[in-house]
Amino acid sequence: MSTDAIVMLREGHKEIRRLIHSYRAERDAQVIEPFLRALTVYTYIEREGMYPRVGVLVPETEPDILGFAEEHHIADVLAAELYEMRRDAVAFDAKARLLMDIVERHMDAEDQRWFPRVRAAVGRKELQEIGAWMATLAECAPQHPRRPSSQMVWDTVAA
Ligand SMILES: [Fe+2]
After folding, report:
1. Which residue, of 25, 39, 66, 112, has the greatest Cβ tally within 10 A?
2. Which part of the chain is the Hemerythrin-like domain (predicted)?
3. pTM higher than 0.85, yes or no?
4. pLDDT at 23 over 90
């Protein structure tokens, strides 16, 4: 298995997209469990492994990274609410669909805009090291969403 960081994250996106399509086609609440697990693991390895390293290596993409991290934060809030919600709750489907729309938009932006920029700026060896670190992180990643703190870490740091 490749440990190239971008290949790994694209594979994560593919799995999440497959689960989104499956939910949209069948409205089957059973799909929510594997969807939230895949989303939680992907979010963890990208946020802990990819964003900090690429922020240092390609500082000009930092505004993108801050935007992506905020999108993950909003997705975390919705994912945690969905995880705690009864599957037959009135708002369950609306919340699931909104979360999936946000996640899909986020993945589109990374796939189409950000990954190509990172690929062009970061060497193959470096991307494989990040990938290997993300594979390690995946082994200890949380398996379901948790309510995030209300602020991102950098919100508390004065500019
Ligand atoms: Fe992401």
Report:
1. 39
2. 5-117
3. yes
4. yes
